[in-house]
Amino acid sequence: MVDNDELSARLDTSDEWIRTRTGIGRRHVVGPGMSTVDMAVEAGRRALQSAGSADIDAVVLATATPDQICPASAPQVASRLGLGPVAAFDVNAVCSGFVYALATAAGLIAGGVSRRVLLVGADAFTTLLNPDDRATVPIFGDGAGAVVLRAGDPDEPGALGPFDLHSDGELSDLLVVPAGGSRMKTSQNPADSYFSMQGPAVFRHATARMAESSRAVLKQVGWTVGDVDRLIGHQANIRILHATAKQLGLPADSLVVNIERTGNTSAASIPLAMVDGVNDGTLQSGDRVLVTAFGAGLTWGSTVLRWPGVTPA
Ligand code: UT7
């Protein structure tokens, strides 16, 4: 765990700036030799324990920081969990990854391809950052969270959907690691190998898109804003969460918030907020929950569910 004072000792920033501008107080950072797969395996193990069964026929890993650029990391997660030769693949929609992967897993089940899916959101996002960049280092943290999805009745608690998913590739440069992919494998400019973010522009898009997408999914499901008990938004910045709730007309206390102790954990953000929301009693069985996320790509999306009576392991 790295707190703001530790960062302020080596970067031109302060606990006061980070807290007031982002709501973040501390974040987990992977140690040397630890990776996305290591965190995903631990989260997956706990989700299987909570579900009471390791009977799984697909593993979907939402991540933008796979252990290697090729292959995907989900097969390593499946094999380290001892799940056998199950379907396993990654979904990369960066900070929207968990919502996109929920839609993917729900689609596998609805299409009869899978019966029970282990869905993990995991990112070692700090491995993408320039350690000297005060614009990104205080914002991001590492983590993993997981859920098990199964086929069920649309009226039972836990039933997911509909989904509202979008992207805008014209704005991909707003959050980007320029080098390392097929377009520019290596670069003479070290900055190209690090994640860069145009924070204020991203802030505006994040708020507008999450509010717009939330409204769209509420319309699809036939809920009014007044029907929503809890809003689980991507934990990017407490001010974005408050602004999104305000745009929707939801009270701030409907938000599930854990950003103070996590930072922005990208694809892990929503499942970690879910676990913390259950553990601190914010999320109660039967709650009508709106889930919304926004991230690099750009990507954004939303879904709804009736909160199931789950106990995190
Ligand atoms: O998860 C994917 C989506 N990501 C996001 O949603 C992130 C969206 N963006 C944000 O959350 C915010 O834009 C940030 C938290 C990244 C930045 O907050 P901001 O209020 O937009 O700050 P800013 O970039 O406009 O900078 C304001 C001032 C500048 O100083 P001047 O020019 O006013 O003198 C910055 O140089 O704050 C300065 N600043 C800092 N000061 C202390 C920027 N970063 C820091 C820092 N510590 N870490």
What does this entry look like structurally?
- The chain is α/β, with parallel strands linked by helices and 313 residues long.
- The chain has two domains: 2-150, 3-Layer(aba) Sandwich (Peroxisomal Thiolase, Chain A, domain 1); 160-306, Thiolase/Chalcone synthase (Peroxisomal Thiolase, Chain A, domain 1, 3-Layer(aba) Sandwich), CATH 3.40.47.10.
- The protein has helices at residues 4-8, 15-22, 36-51, 74-80, 97-110, 199-221, 238-248, 259-262, 269-279, and strands spanning 2-3, 26-27, 58-62, 87-91, 116-124, 142-150, 160-167, 175-176, 196-197, 230-233, 288-295, 299-306.
- The strands form four sheets. It has a four-stranded mixed sheet, sandwiched between helices. The protein has a four-stranded mixed sheet with strand order 7-12-11-10, sandwiched between helices. A two-stranded antiparallel sheet has the order 1-2.
- A hairpin with a 3-residue loop joins β11 and β12.
- It is globular and about 55 Å long.
- The two termini are 21 Å apart.
- The mean pLDDT is 97.
- Bound molecules: oxa(dethia)-CoA (UT7).
- Oxa(dethia)-CoA binds next to α2, α6 and β11.
How does the SSE layout of this entry go?
Layout: E1 2-3, H1 4-8, H2 15-22, E2 26-27, H3 36-51, E3 58-62, H4 74-80, E4 87-91, H5 97-110, E5 116-124, E6 142-150, E7 160-167, E8 175-176, E9 196-197, H6 199-221, E10 230-233, H7 238-248, H8 259-262, H9 269-279, E11 288-295, E12 299-306
Parallel strand pairs: 3-4, 3-5, 10-11
Antiparallel strand pairs: 1-2, 5-6, 7-12, 8-9, 11-12
Helix pairs in contact: 3-4, 6-7
